[in-house]
Known about the structure:
The protein is mainly beta. It contains two helices and 26 strands. The longest helix has 6 residues. The termini are far apart.
Amino acid sequence: MHVANAEGNNLVGTLPVEMKLLSKMVDLVIVNNKIRGTLPVAFGENAESLRSLLLPDNDLTGRIPENYLSNSPLEFVHLGNNALSGPIPRNIGNTMYLRQIDLSGNSITGTILEEIGGFKSLEALSLADNKLQGSVPIEIYNMTSLKFLHLNGNKLTGTISSSIGGLSSLKELRLGGSELSGYIPDELYSLTNLVEIDISQANFVGRISLGFLNLKNLEKLVVSDNELGGIIPSRLGRLSTLSDLNLQGNNFFGAIPESVCLLREDKLEVLTADCKDLLCNCCTMCF
Length: 287
């Protein structure tokens, strides 16, 4: 057997120990079922051809074993929305091939290890909605192939490093629901491939920078529930690609500029603000 594919079939039970015999399996896809238990260690040791490990939306528990599937040319690991616990393993698959890691929606603890920077081919990393603590390791900012970085919904602390400018391929940045703080570094505005920035529900300070104007592809900007302040610059209305702008829960004052309101006639579908402190006649939602 080279491919096992079962999606939304209401499968129950555990992953059998006999899986260790499937050394030539290429794709293991069991999505949105009721598979429980732990990841079989013997399978991880014996698999030598596995390319995709896709087991999201199940009831898996326990830890991800260290060096899991290290003998496989693993490219895709999706284990999101289970009940996995313990730390992020120092190594999973082969660092040469791995392109996507999704461990979101689990109960993973500890810190984001510096070894994550060794996955040079990684294009997507989602560790969202876990119980991770500590800072974002500097090594993450050296992952030049990374397009999607989702670290939201953890207890991360510290600041966004100026080294974030190294993420030259980045399209989505989600750091919200954390304890990150400080100013947004100017180097962020050099990431011209960005389509989405979500830094909501954190402790960032400062003002809305005109550096955002460099992000010609930006569609979603969510900075709600921080400690940002000042006025909203009128030149923000030049961001004609915006479809979602959320400013609510900060210390802004004055009024939403007419230039931003005019974006509602173009692509801007969602505009959210505290309309008592920040006058807004064009918001889709006021708090």
